Amino acid sequence: MFPKIRPRRLRGSQPLRDIVAETHLSVNDLVYPIFVKEGPTNPIKSMPGQYQHSLDDIGSVAVKAQEAGIKSLLLFGIPKYKDSMATSAFEQDGVVQKGVKAIKDEADDIFVMTDVCTCQYTNSGHCGIVDNGKVINDKSLPILSKIALSHVKAGADAVAPSDMLDGRVGAIRKTLDDNSYNDIPIVSYAAKYASSYYGPFREACNSAPQHGDRKTYQMDYHNAREALKEIELDIAEGADIVMVKPALCYLDIICKVKEATNIPVMAYNVSGEYAMIKHAGAAGLVDERSMVLETLTSIKRAGADIIATYFALDYAGDLI
Ligand code: PBG
Ligand code: ZN
After folding, report:
1. What is the residue with the minimal CA distance to atom 5 of ligand 1?
2. If you take atom 16 of ligand 1, which residue's CA is the nearest one?
3. Are 100 and 92 in contact (CB under 8 A)?
4. pLDDT tens by residue, 63-93
5. To test ligand 1's pocket by mutation, which of 50, 75, 116, 117 has the most ligand atoms within 8 angstroms of CB?
6. Contact, 150 vs 101, CB < 8 A?
7. If you placed Cys at 96, which of 74, 77, 178, 278 could pair as Cys (CB 3.0 to 4.6 Å)?
8. Catalytic residue IDs
């Protein structure tokens, strides 16, 4: 029988495809992760096109992002020194604190989230304080809270704890509230998996664990329902936005989290996902531009309201 229904009828031209498209990627969806470091600007070898920016340069990066229409940055720091208590993470003249000020001085209209963790700032390279070879959960919470408070005092618009320790959203919320910062949102890395896709980032930040791995605090990739438990807990503790990380192997998680919550869902298109496309593009194996747009759209289609991606600056112009 000749088909009455022909799906191809709705694919006949670009304007038609545009009006029936179910998902629209916008520059408003994007958050641009950037790195600030003490000392001179350095290219990051593992992430072609990304830099460890000096304090002198970071403001102009923010200006460029703002001019490209990007609404938000996610700031990571590479500090002067490391110790056992992550002191360089919460000093008021630490690299992130100075970086936030530099950004705010030059680009007054961009929303600055700061990554809150200890791994770049401790000798152990772990996302918490280590005693006898173990990450001690409850001893780490006051440190994470101090880091968050110092960022906000420096002018951060939101804090994004990425440690995956238990109870840290509640601890940070209480510290911010006790200091009259009750209007500062917490963007929680709520379902963050122990992933090999973070490899290039650890080189970028010099933050690889010096012993063991992160499997005692980051999630096991065999688990999906557990992500909902993490999300529920973080929301109960006061998270304003929840994040799923990485994005591409975890589109099912993004989808489940979106259905289970009524707060914004963010997904992090991480360093390994970035590097794979960059290298395949440079090798002439794929067309970078079309692969990036397909990839970011798939993350949005899965349910992400916000996407953190290193591609943000290069592709903002395609999305306005
Ligand atoms: C550290 C942190 C990591 C990322 C963001 N914050 C790496 C890790 O957990 O080892 C990953 C970002 C990326 O790969 O792009 N708390
Ligand atoms: Zn960490």
Report:
1. 162
2. 162
3. no
4. 999 999 999 999 999 999 999 999 999 999 9
5. 117
6. no
7. 77
8. 192, 245
Strand runs (DSSP E) across the chain, as ranges?
30-37, 42-43, 51-54, 72-78, 111-116, 130-131, 134-135, 158-161, 187-192, 241-245, 265-269, 306-309
CATH number at 27-319: 3.20.20.70
Q: At what angle do helices 137-154 and 168-178 cross, to 10 degrees?
A: 40
Residue 298: band (very low, low, confident or very high) from pLDDT cuts 50, 70, 90: very high
Match 């005693």 to its residue by tokens: 131
**Any idea where the domains of the chain sit in the sequence?**
27-319
Ligand 1 centroid to Cα of residue 10, in Å, is: 41
User: From the CA of 212, how far away is ligand 2's center (Å)?
Assistant: 14
Tokens 């970078």 map to which residue?
288
Report the predicted TM-score, pTM, of the whole model to 2 decimal places.
Answer: 0.97
Q: Which residues line ligand 1 (CB under 6 A)?
A: 115, 117, 119, 127, 162, 198, 201-202, 214, 270-271
